[in-house]
Amino acid sequence: MTSPKPRVGQKVDEMQLAVAGEDRAIAVGAPKDRWTMLFVYRGKHCPRCKRFLSKLNTTLSNWTAKMDVVVVSADPEDKALADKAEFGWNFDLCYGLTEPQMRALGLYVSEPLSEAETDAIFAEPGAFALRPDGTLMLVDISNGPAARPDLEELLDGMIFNIDKDRPVRGTA
Question: pTM of the full predicted structure?
Answer without folding.
Answer: 0.94
